[in-house]
Each structure stands twice: as C-alpha cells, then as structure tokens.
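Predict the holo structure. Ligand: pyridoxal-5'-phosphate.
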Amino acid sequence: MTNKPRYAEASMEAMYRIFTVPEAPGSTLGNIDQKLSQDLAGFLQEHIVAVEKDPEELQKDFSDSVIPEKPIFVSDQADFLMDKLVAQSVHTASPSFIGHMTSALPYFMLPLSRIMMALNQNLVKIETSKAFTPMERQVLGMIHRLIYQRDNAFYKKWMHEPGHSLGSFCSGGTIANITALWVARNCRFDRDPKNGFAGIQRVGLFGALQHHGYRGAAVLVSERGHYSLGKAADVLGIGRDFLVCVKADARNKIDLQQLRDKVAELKANKIAIIAMVGVAGTSETGSVDPLDEMADLAQEIGCHFHVDAAWGGPTLFSKKYAHILKGIERADSVTIDAHKQMYVPMGAGMVIFKSPSLVSSIEHHADYIIRKGSRDLGAYTLEGSRPGIAMLLHSGLKIIGRSGYEILIEQGIEKARTFARMIQAEADFELVSEPELNILTYRYVPAFVKAKLAAASAEEVDRIHDVLNRLTKRIQKNQRARGKSFVSRTTLTPEAWDRRRTIVFRVVLANPLTSHEILQDVLAEQRYIASTDTCSECMAELHALCDDRPLHAHAV
Ligand SMILES: Cc1ncc(COP(=O)(O)O)c(C=O)c1O
C-alpha cells in the first residue's frame, strides 16, 4: 500500500538539488534503478497484473485534477508509481503475451537508453545534438541500404549531405506514414513558376486543385491498410473519404484488378492520385501486398508509391524470406518501425526515401534554429524536438547485427507456420488467415459446429456465425482477465465465409521466448474457457442450432 505522501517545501535550493544530486544507492529510487538494471524480466513478473481491474476502478487512483501545491518526496512518488502504475501495467515482455505488436526488449536496451535520457539531446538541430545528428543520418543510411541496396559511393555522397536526407526519423509508423504522404502530396503539386504556380506548400490543397483543374485528390490502399493512413488523409486536407480502400483478396492482399478499376474511376472523375500505398505486413493478418505489380501500376500512372512496412520491413534481414517483400525496392518511400520488429523501445519509427532529394518538398527552415544549407535533421521532420532514440537502433543494428535479426525474423515466421499447423490439427479450432509473416488469425469452432457448418444453409451459417462471434469475444476477454496469456481479437470478412463479419483471435509471434508449449497452452486454455460458465450461453445456443447434445466441462 502507498503511504500518505510527505510534503516538502518548494525552494530554489530543492529545485537545484533535483537537477544535481543523484539518488543514493540505498534509496527507494536507487533500488528501483538497480533492480531494473539487474533483472528487468524478474522485476516485471513480480508486478504482472494478476487480477484484471476494470478501467473505472483503475482511474480512481488518477482522479485528482489539482496540481500539488507542495513538492512530495521522490521516494513517495516512487512508491506510488510501483503500487498504482507498475503493478497495474501490462507485462508486454511475457512470452505468453502474443496479441499485439508490442513485445519483449533485449536487456541491453535498458542501460543504453539511459545514455539517451541522461544526455537529453535534441535532434532538431546539430547545435543541440552534435554527434547524434551524424549517427541518426548513419542509421537512416543503413536502413536505406537494407531496402534499396545502393553502392558505397551512393551512401558516401548522400548520407551526410547538407540539404538532403535519406529519410526522416520519427516517433512511429503513424508519423512516418503522414510524412511519406506529405512528401507525395507536395511533390504531386510542386511549384511550377513557368505556369505561375507557387506550389502547394504556399497555396494549399484548394489552390493546387484549382490551378490543375482537379475536383479532389486521393490516396489508394487496400482495405487492410492501417488506420494511420486515414489520419494522414485528414491532416493533409485530402479527406478521409478520399483514402480509397480497395478490396483485398482471399489472402488479404490488395486485389489488383479492383485497384486498376479504382484508378480508372478516379481519373474519370478528375481526382488527382497522390499516392498508392502497398502494405508489407498488414496489422491484422500480416499479409504483404503484391508490391512489384503495384510498383508497375504506380509507374504507369506516374504516382508516388509508398510502402507501409512498419511491421514487415525487417523481413528484409532474412535471406530466406526477403523475397516476400519483392518490389519494396521500387517504392519512393518506405515506413519501418524500429519499435516493432527491431526490438527498440517505443518511439522509434522511420520513413526512408529512395531519392535523397525528395525531402526538399517538405523542407522547412527557421533562422534561429534550422538554417538553410545545414545538416540539421529538423528541416525534414514533421516533429520538432526529438530524442536521440536512433542511438538505440544503432545499438540494435550493431549488437544484434543483420544475422541476429535474421534469426529473430525467421523464428517468428516459422513459429507462426507451426502454430497454424497446430491449429489445423485440432478438431475444434479453425485457422482463418494463413500466416505469410508472423501474424495469424483463428477461432474456436467446436467439432459438432464444424460438422453442421459443412452442410448448413446460408441462413443457418449466418445464425451460427453470429453465436461464434460472441463466443470468440467471450473467450478472448476471459483469457485476458485470467492473466495467464493474451491474444488480441479483430474482425475480418473472410472469403471462405462469403465475407461474413467474422471475429477472430489474432496472434503476433515476435517474442523469441514464446515456445510451442506456450502455444499449446493458449489453445488448451481457450478450449477450457469455452467449456466454462462464461461461455455456457453461447455453447447452448450452438448446440441448439446444430442439434447436438451438450458436452461437459473439463478443467485445465
Ligand atoms: C502496418 C502499420 N502501419 C502503421 C502503424 C502505426 O505505427 P505506430 O503505432 O508506431 O504509429 C502500424 C502499427 O501497428 C502498423 O501495423
């Protein structure tokens, strides 16, 4: 329990002290510091959320809107954080936490991240970041090379070239996607002094469309595209309705014929196509769009080709599986998140540009800070002040190395394939999306329901699906509340079920510590939950719909 906090007097001396006096090794903060460094996993396991509290209960500890008048002791605040925050946070590093893209971190990230914190460099410009700027430029160069494979001479010329950049480091995939489409939009309506057009940067989208005689502007992506693209369409003035979501095929990849049809439709309606976005690892199913064919089409119609590889980009580390992303090297820009499959703490995304001069379309200068002709990275980023987190990717790339990342990527893909076979071997589970990378979806379908579905009428299938959707939701929520393991859930419209709305379990296999035994346990626990009271209503409905006699619960 947290004791009542003790208050101190605010004084200049006290303010001075918090900036200058480090915590003593035996103090509460000193102990936390030491424990975190020595045994991160152990520390978190002691504090895993044991009993799920509902959000209203949790927010009671954070309900005071009054800023404390007097300072409290650091140790009291540390106690509060341990008790109310850490104890109620999510153990994302657990090998049985396999529902989201946020996973375990290598141990070395924690002590190294202290360097970043302690130095508090600001990458907006060299004056506040010094060596961090060339280091970030080097990291952007390394990732550029991973994608585009240019030769040494290219990187020698461009990596540190003032007025240019091979990419833009940012806080994550969302900002990376917005930045990519910002560049695409500005290039599409670049200044054209000969024809009296000052450029979209100056006159805005309305002026640009008027000048060029368009009725709107659009971005094309598959219906499985990430929701950040909708935000991008909104902030860039394109409008969410003009983020054209093209149907995906049975494998959750963009349907190329439908894409061509949409392109023709937009052209006929005088809508300018700003960009086409290929997804390399969709958030829900991990599917990769046919990038090469999309690059052909983008080239044919002369529009920017962006690849959102926030999740799947690091597949390029694997010699065995890099071919899945074939065509990515033809993209004008690529989003990659280092805080996903490169195992860097949150807040590390990148957009990489094929051409080092593309960023000039969004270049921004301010006399006091990011001057023209400088190497300042702030000239090409949406964000202003930014931390030196590229330092941690730099460390990952060196400490793990290409071959280390290759092992991590390959184990994830292969484990997902094994899990898919495990699911298919069970009489009471149904694989909904086959993993192309390391994400898959499935659901619990008792054997007697499977038998019924095989010969059911369309209306019967509808009714059974409706109950199965409720059952999947119940199992997922209950499994989360039990706190042993976690898978997420989403809704798909699989072709195998005539595009019926289908709620599925979603599994993301990025943690190398997730074993086959853990995966078996996840299935066993789901089967067990289905046999308990929580699901009895749904099960009774299924038995009734399938003319089957109920089964008895077996404890796990
Ligand atoms: C394909 C894809 N793009 C973009 C994003 C957005 O990334 P972030 O959450 O880092 O902003 C995600 C996040 O899950 C993603 O899966």
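The first strand starts at residue 167 and ends at 170. The two ends are 33 Å apart (CA to CA).
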